[in-house]
Write a structure and sequence with these properties.
Layout: E1 2-3, E2 7-18, E3 24-33, E4 38-43, E5 48-53, H1 64-76, E6 81-87, H2 97-112, H3 119-126, H4 131-138, E7 142-146, E8 150-153, E9 162-168, H5 174-178, H6 190-194, H7 201-204, H8 210-216, H9 218-229, E10 234-237, E11 244-248, E12 263-268
Parallel strand pairs: 5-6
Antiparallel strand pairs: 1-4, 2-3, 3-7, 4-6, 7-8, 9-11, 9-12, 10-11
């Protein structure tokens, strides 16, 4: 069973307030894009996890694919599997790659073992692993609120635009991004902004994490500025970083970046 877990970008991200439980209430739009890892799951006599491509630097017990299999096995007794994950997407980029891997693990196990789980049942399992993990079950644009785990459908499409993902060779921890952040209620909510022409988004659509992350990682701010200099009609950091994306209304060519940090560019449509 082979699948291709994709990533997401955040179309805006507002940090509204700190919650009594220590988390934050946010609002954002998760939008799926096709930059993919490769996941293969095979029935096996004993559990085995193989990582190729970018190395996953954590113990197997911390890996979200393993945790996803563990949850499904505990509830449905599917037995051991061999998971082969080829990583193309770096960690710590704010693109939700680890969560996507876990969600696709759940979906693959459902199909491989003919469990006939509904989307809601799969979402229930995925939600135990993280907010954006549940998003990748349906894998359609949603408006997310509270901890980022309450979803409502939203009509938004970027299919007529080009997307550039700029991936620096360093990551940003979410806990680090929340340090010194200043929660505030936005003047306009994100769904209202997204109803306007995309050329106006840069005046209103923000990612509140940029305030703290750009202070420590000035190269990310420069990457965003360079995207605009190269003709992007909208650019933003995704999630808590470090990925910066730019939206273009034509295929970007002959790009010239002034930033000196080491980074990779992924061109998507």
């Amino acid at each position: 069973m082979i699948s291709f877990p994709n990533v997401k970008i955040n179309l805006g991200l507002n940090i509204i307030e700190k919650r009594p439980d220590g988390y934050h209430n946010i609002e954002t739009v998760f939008y799926p894009v096709q930059f993919n890892d490769i996941l293969e799951i095979i029935k096996s006599d004993k559990f085995k996890f193989i990582n190729t491509g970018i190395k996953i630097d954590c113990n197997i017990e911390q890996n979200l694919c393993y945790k996803a299999w563990q949850l499904v096995d505990k509830k449905y007794g599917i037995g051991p599997v061999k998971i082969i994950l080829h990583k193309n997407v770096p960690y710590g980029t704010g693109l939700g790659a680890g969560s996507s891997n876990a969600a696709f693990t759940i979906k693959s196990l459902n199909e491989l073992f003919a469990l006939n789980l509904t989307e809601d049942e799969q979402i229930s399992i995925a939600s135990l692993l993280g907010a954006d993990c549940a998003f990748f079950i349906k894998n359609k644009p949603v408006f997310a609120i509270e901890k980022g785990d309450k979803f409502s459908n939203i009509e938004i499409s970027l299919k007529n635009y080009y997307l550039l993902l700029c991936l620096p060779k360093f990551s940003v921890k979410t806990s680090e991004a929340y340090n010194n952040c200043l929660p505030q209620k936005p003047i306009k909510n994100i769904p209202e902004i997204l109803k306007t022409e995309i050329h106006y988004w840069k005046d209103y659509l923000v990612n509140d994490f940029e305030n703290t992350v750009f202070t420590k990682y000035s190269d990310l701010k420069k990457l965003k500025e360079d995207l605009y200099l190269n003709g992007s009609i909208f650019a933003l950091m995704s999630g808590s970083g470090s990925a910066i994306y730019g939206i273009f209304d034509y295929e970007p060519k002959n790009l010239k970046f002034k930033v000196e940090c080491d980074y990779k560019i992924i061109k998507l449509q």
